[in-house]
């Protein structure tokens, strides 16, 4: 179990990227962070992967502070597989190097490395005979992303942090990658932290997992994926879900669908709820009083709203 | 007499007819024998993956297919302009912007970083000999922006959604009635995307536009378009009424594509991945059906004979079933 407690991060003097975020990623579980760009979800993923420092709070692994070398067990898979792979290296060489280090540490030989390379490629759904000798530019976007996943798996990670991992992949290939991330949870017990603004993909990867909705560096709603999607209580979550295109012909808009407003100038912090200036339901109290993350109103999920109300904003299938 | 004078003032939205259009890059067709009609006053969604030829097809409306690409066959006829593929460089320069508005992919990056939006607007007016650019104001305000502020801004001072709106303003300020939007929401957040799509809908209705929206996202088409055309390997494999095609896709590619969209409700495993990889320009088969490698309905004839569209669907298997 990897946990974060009260993680804060400020860029420069005043840009509060994270305002004390708590999260827990159980082994083999899935946690998704959703929110608009600039909400801090990527920063949080990078902090977890050891690529970014944080100002306050704690990162824990099984209750103990996460130490330098352990960050290797948390691997980042980012948006663009093309820039994540060395263009001058074949797939084989990309995978062999980290495995060689591993082999040295465990006293195994070249034969183990070769069999492990093939094993990992098969695991991510690639044909070793086809891809081993190839360079990244000779592969499709989907194949490249699978190579990136295979490379991450060479170090036997506990957590894969997938940051918008399919947004640059062709639509017909996306589901395959999402399915791969999901199956790795089952076959290897790897946990997945899925960071995205595309809620439907988060639902697909994060079956039985938790959804965190992040707004301006703070978690505003948190709970089991299905609960948050079908019964969101925070107006920001409701705006976010209302913005998802309705597949007219197959679906009709949810009965309570909102018309969300775009981000405002976010350089100033209101004293109360950060979302109040954009909130369609804000009242004078909201502007004054910061809402704590909790279960006010006996909701099944955590939320940070003084006036939680369930609204059905997600599209409803026809027929 | 300049061409601008002989064109009648457009009062109704113009129609666009793309007829048997082939655009090749060094002998390889990126768009092959495509026929597509954009009915006046409608929004048509052109859906395809990377390499499907959708952007090349969209550029042909501007007559902007660049070398080594070449229109080798067919026509693009726009009401009030004529066949765009036959226009010379100067005529093209005049119609671009004034008759056909184009919002480029990543419009948020297509602004000049060294000039304010207002200065770029004046440049546009100068290029077309138009002095009265007051239209920019109501256009920007209509899209929910503070026009005075935006015109004084440099692109880095605007958010992605604001830049996209500025792109739409540039496309329409000279009163163009054909609007092409190439991936207008790809780099944007969900909420910004929803707002831009609302603008596309409103503006299309207010200004009598004929709109083509190019995207990889079926959801975007479902939200705004009346018609849909699905491209694969340089061909339009299916076209028709957007809601009907989304509800009952006939071509196996359209079916698989819609089936591969993860949804927010219902059985999470109802979404099924599509096997294989979309072809690139170099790997599009030269004979037979372009989709056969990934097709569950593949037959012998698909290897050799390219299917012709019947009722908007170009598939041997589907069309055999239709005409017993």
Can you characterise this structure?
The complex is a heterodimer of chains A (319) and B (324). With 319 residues, chain A is of the alpha/beta class. Chain A has two domains: 149 residues, P-loop containing nucleotide triphosphate hydrolases (Rossmann fold, 3-Layer(aba) Sandwich); 87 residues, no CATH class. Helix content of chain A is 32%, strand content 21%. Chain A contains eleven helices and 13 strands. In chain A, strands 6-7-8-3-9-10-12 form a seven-stranded mixed beta sheet, with helices on both faces. The mean pLDDT of chain A is 93. With 324 residues, chain B is α/β, with parallel strands linked by helices. Chain B has a single domain, classed as Rossmann fold (3-Layer(aba) Sandwich). Helix content of chain B is 31%, strand content 20%. Chain B contains twelve helices and ten strands. In chain B, the strands form two sheets. A six-stranded mixed beta sheet of chain B has the order 6-7-8-3-9-10, sandwiched between helices. Chain B has a four-stranded antiparallel beta sheet with strand order 2-1-4-5, covered by helices on one side. In chain B, a hairpin with a 2-residue loop joins strand 1 and strand 2. Chain B starts with a helix and ends with a helix.
């Amino acid at each position: 179990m990897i946990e974060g407690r009260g993680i804060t991060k400020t860029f420069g003097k005043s840009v509060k990227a994270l305002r004390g975020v708590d999260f827990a990623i159980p082994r083999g579980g899935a946690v998704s962070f959703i929110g608009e760009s600039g909400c801090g979800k990527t920063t949080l993923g990078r902090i977890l992967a050891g690529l970014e420092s944080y100002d306050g709070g704690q990162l824990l692994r099984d209750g103990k502070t996460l130490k330098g070398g352990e960050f290797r067990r948390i691997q980042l898979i980012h948006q663009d597989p093309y820039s994540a792979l060395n263009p001058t290296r074949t797939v084989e060489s990309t995978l062999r190097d980290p495995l060689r280090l591993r082999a040295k540490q465990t006293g195994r030989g070249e034969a183990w490395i070769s069999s492990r390379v093939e094993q990992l490629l098969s695991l991510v759904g690639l044909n070793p005979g086809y891809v081993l000798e190839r360079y990244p530019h000779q592969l499709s976007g989907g194949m490249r992303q699978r190579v990136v996943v295979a490379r991450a798996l060479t170090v036997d990670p506990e957590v894969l942090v997938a940051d918008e991992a399919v947004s640059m992949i062709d639509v017909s290939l996306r589901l395959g990658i999402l399915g791969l991330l999901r199956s790795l949870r089952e076959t290897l017990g790897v946990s997945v932290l899925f960071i995205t603004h595309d809620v439907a993909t988060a639902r697909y990867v994060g079956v039985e997992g938790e959804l965190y909705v992040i707004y301006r560096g703070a978690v505003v709603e948190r709970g089991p994926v299905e609960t948050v999607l079908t019964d969101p209580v925070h107006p920001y979550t409701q705006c976010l879900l209302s913005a998802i295109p309705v597949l007219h012909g197959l679906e009709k808009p949810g009965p309570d669908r909102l018309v969300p407003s775009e981000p405002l100038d976010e350089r100033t912090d209101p004293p109360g709820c950060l979302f109040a200036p954009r909130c369609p339901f804000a009242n004078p109290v909201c502007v004054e009083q910061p809402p704590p993350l909790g279960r006010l109103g006996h909701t099944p999920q955590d939320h940070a709203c003084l006036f939680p109300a369930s609204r059905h904003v997600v599209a409803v299938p026809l027929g | 007499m300049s061409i601008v004078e002989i064109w009648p003032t457009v009062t109704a939205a113009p129609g666009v007819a793309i007829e048997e259009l082939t655009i090749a890059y060094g002998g390889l067709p990126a768009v092959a024998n495509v026929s597509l009609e954009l009915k006046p006053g409608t929004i048509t969604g052109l859906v395809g993956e990377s390499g499907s030829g959708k952007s090349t097809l969209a550029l042909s409306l501007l007559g902007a297919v660049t070398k080594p690409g070449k229109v080798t066959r067919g026509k693009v006829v726009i009401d009030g302009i004529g066949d765009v593929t036959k226009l010379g460089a100067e005529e093209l320069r005049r119609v671009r912007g004034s008759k056909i508005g184009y919002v480029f992919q990543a419009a948020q990056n297509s602004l000049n970083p060294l000039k304010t939006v207002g200065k770029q607007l004046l440049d546009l007016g100068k290029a077309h000999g138009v002095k009265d650019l007051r239209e920019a104001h109501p256009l920007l305000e209509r899209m929910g922006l503070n026009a005075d502020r935006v015109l004084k801004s440099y692109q880095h001072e605007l958010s992605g959604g604001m830049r996209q709106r500025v792109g739409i303003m540039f496309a329409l300020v000279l009163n163009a009635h054909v609007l092409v939007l190439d991936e207008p929401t790809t780099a944007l957040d969900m909420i910004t995307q929803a707002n831009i799509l609302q603008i596309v809908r409103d503006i299309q209705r207010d200004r009598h536009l004929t709109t083509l929206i190019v995207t990889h996202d079926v959801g975007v088409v479902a939200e705004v378009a009346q018609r849909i055309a699905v491209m694969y390997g340089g061909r339009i494999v299916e076209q028709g009424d957007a809601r009907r095609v989304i509800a009952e896709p006939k071509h196996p590619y359209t079916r698989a594509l819609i089936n591969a969209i993860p949804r927010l409700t219902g059985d999470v495993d109802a979404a099924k991945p599509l096997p294989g990889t979309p072809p690139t320009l170099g790997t599009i088969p030269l004979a037979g059906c372009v989709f056969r490698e990934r097709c569950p309905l593949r037959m012998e004839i698909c290897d050799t004979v390219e299917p012709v569209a019947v009722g908007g669907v170009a598939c041997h298997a589907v069309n055999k079933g239709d005409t017993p």
